[in-house]
Amino acid sequence: MPSLFHQRQIAASLSPRSVKLMTCGSVDDGKSTLIGRLLFEANLITEDQLARLMDLSKRHGTNDDQIDFSLLLDGLSAEREQNITIDVAYRFFNTSRRSFRVADVPGHKEYTKNMVTGASTAEIAILLVDASQGLSEQTRRHSFIISLLGIKQIVLAINKIDLIAFSSDAVSKIVSEYKSMAEPLAFETIMPIPISARHGDNVIKNSENTPWYTGTPLLQYLEEIEVSSSEPSAGYVMPIQWVNRQNSDFRGFAGTIAAGSIEPGQKVISLPSNQTTTIRQIILGSEKLPSASKGEAVTVVLDDEIDLSRGDVLAASDADIDVSDQFEADLVWMDGEMGFAGRPYWMMLGSAKISAKITKIKYKYDLNTLAKLSDTKLQCNDIASITIKLDQAVPFLSYQTNRELGGFILVDRFNLRTVAAGMIKHSLHRASNIRQQHFDVSRASRETLSGQKGQVFWLTGLSGAGKSTIANEFEKALHKRGLNTYILDGDNIRTGLNGDLGFTDADRIENIRRVAEVAKLMVDAGLIVITAFISPFRPEREAARALFDEGDFSEIYIDTPIEIAEQRDSKGLYKKARSGGIPNFTGMFSSYEPPFAPEVHLTTSVLTIDQCVAKLLDYFEKSQ
User: Fold this and answer.
1) 291 catalytic residue (yes or no)
2) β-strands 18-25, 89-94: how paired?
3) Active-site option among 535, 590, 605, 623
């Protein structure tokens, strides 16, 4: 039985170079039909599959009595009924010269996120254009996304040439128009091939119907094309996925090599700690390897005991890898819930999981015109240029250099949904020039001098729930005890510090972000801070909590049914909202998200003000 290493060598020598393809284009341009035709003409459909395909063609086909090859990939019942592709469909096949993985992505602009999924791992894009229709908005849209996702080689498959009587002039016009349109996108190669996916012209072999086409047929071109790849300028890069401690005498670092190759004796550096050492061993299973390269999952053993953990990166000592906590990136928003600057998410980059915030939505792309549009929110399928800030510096490469260390996803911290996929463009180096300044008088010194512990009581609830009233009475009670306090109140803050903010969701998020930062400074000064803000969204309240040490932040839910809050309406806000004067009023036209587990829950429809304050004082005493 060959060893794992020799099995790896044998497989590499017998298997052709695998190529990851994607097909894209407008709806009905023939993407699924083309892939089905490729598989059929290359004799890669089994008899059972062919029989099923013929049956499906009779029931759902669009080619009269002929085989409808699109049904080989359109596997969802909804797709068959609507004759469109909704999800990303993958197919794998081999020829004698090469193996392929093909991703057939949807054409509708509503499924942009599905297209991004298919393009994120593709190396070559087959962009279909209906010869009878010419270039479309989706041609421009898909070309831009292809470019954004780092695909440099395009096959421009001009399909349905049978519908234009195989006219060379019509094909030449489409090619000329496309190359002019794609010039700003900087593709390395654009190979135009006129085809008829339905009838097989120029798919497997050159067609007699196009004697004017002297290039290679599609499959031959795909078998022969040399796939370009971007690599870091100095080779080996491996994100650490797992610290392998088989026993007390063994410590290895496992991961999948993201770029380059490695061999024992090579000098490496750990990032972000910048410690250097040498590779002692490379292990696959129970065997020691003489080398390993990109795409292989291995364990490396180092000469020195250095501090490495999941999320760190091991790289060649002269690797050109940056470390930063702030980036400019392109982002594809994939969630039905809108995204805003200032909201916290988990970023998954390489094998690292880091807390992150979008700090600015610079602009969104109009994918039909490539214009840059100003906006403050992200909706499903939007693509935008953003800046993003992490709570710690991480090693990275630009997406155009390396997808593994340049591509990331954002995950909702509450429900763990993937909300966005991003591509790092570059770091914002000004962030690395900022360092926390140390001062000799510490928070502990201030607290000792004042004889109290700094902390924040975060009151949240609907307008009219009683937040400001309770905050006022609570502060008076603490003041009588000789404690130094300060109230940050919603209305008061908006007359000064946050006077530039409105009441959109984006402005509410920024309002709470600023208040949380101010409260943090006050707690550092040793003050007891009481905030009275609606603060309607859980993510922002949790982001505020995350700024403080454990025990320094207490969420106080002032719980009042909206009917009672509206009856009180001391400011007349509900009445004004119902007349249309306040379009984004919380509880009526904008949602309020109650806390899941507040430290104190005060129901003001049942409790009096004095009872509420008594409960707060009791909690305060127990928290000291």
Assistant:
1) no
2) unpaired
3) 535
